Structure prediction request, 334 residues.
Amino acid sequence: MLTMIQQYHIKHLNFHKGKSLRSIAEETGHDFRTVKKYAEQTDFNEIRKPKRGRPSKLDPVKPIIDAWLKEDLNRPVKQRHTARRIYDRLCDEHQDIFNACERTVRTYVSARKKELYGEEEGYLPLEHPAGEAQVDFGEIVMIEQGQKVKGYELILSLPYSNAGYPQIFRGQNQECLLTGLKDIFEYLEHVPRIIWFDNMSAAVAGIGEKGERKLVDQFYRFALHYGFKPQFCNPGKGHEKGHVENKVGYSRRNYFVPEPSFSDIEEFNQGLFAVAEKDHCRKHYRKGRVINELLQDDLTAMLPLPAKPFTIGRMQKLSANKYGKVCVDTNVYS
Prediction:
C-alpha cells in the first residue's frame, strides 16, 4: 500500500496535470495497476473497523449521572456535583443497580463534563529556529536623578538560545521601540531574520477584517532598512510569543530589583548589555548547554548589520498657537 503522499502525488498528476496513467507509472516507478487504482479512487476516507464494545458496570446508571450533570448547568459553580458526590449518591440512592468503583465513576464524569462544558483551549508549543527573536515592553519603576518614576523595559529575547537583552525607556512609543532595537542590533552586530511582536501601536496602525496588518510607515522603513521580517501575534494571543513574556518578568525580577537608579539613562542602558551577558553564562533550562554557546548559533543564523545606521525620528509640520507653542504627543513645547 502506498503512503498518503504517494497517493496524493498520483492523483495530482492525473487530475490536475492531466497526465496519462502510463506516463505516471513511468515517472513514479509504480505498477500501472497501482497507478490506475489510486487515480480512479474517489473515496479516501479512512476505513475504521468497528470496536467491539463490552458492557460497563456503569451502564445502568449512566442516564442518572447524565441527568444530574445536565441539571448542574443551571446551578452555581460551587454547588455542582463532583465525581465524589455522584459516587456517594449512587451508593445511597441506587444500591440495587449500581456496582462500580469510585475510579470508574470519576473517569466517566470527567469525560461527560468535557462534553457538556467544552474542552479547554489548547496551545501548540512554538519551536523557534536559531536567528529568530521576540520583542515586548514591560512596566517597571525606576529612579532617575533621585525621582521615582514609572518606566518601561524593552526586551528582545532569542527563544532558541534563551538569551535576552533589555533596555529601559521613559515611554513605549515608536521612537523608544526603534531606538531600543537599533541599539541592540548594533551591540550584537547582527539582526534577527524574523522578529515577533504583539499588535503594539508603535508598529501597527490597524488590523483589517481578515487579520492583515497596516504597519506604521516609519516601522516599515525600519524593517526594510535592517532586513528583518516582522511577524505579529493574533489579537489577544500573547502566548504566541510566550518566551519574551516570560523574559519580561525574569528581567524585572533579576535586573530591576531594587529599582534601578541612574542619572543618565543612555549610559545605564549600555551597562545593561554587560548585565545580560553575565546572565548568559548559565545553562539553558532545557537543552543543557550554556546560553552563550547557543547564542553563537543564533548569531550565525542572523543577518549582518547594514552599512548605514537608520536615523530614528519623525518629521512633522505643526502650527503654533497664539502663545507660540506647539503640541507633540500631548506634550506642549515653546
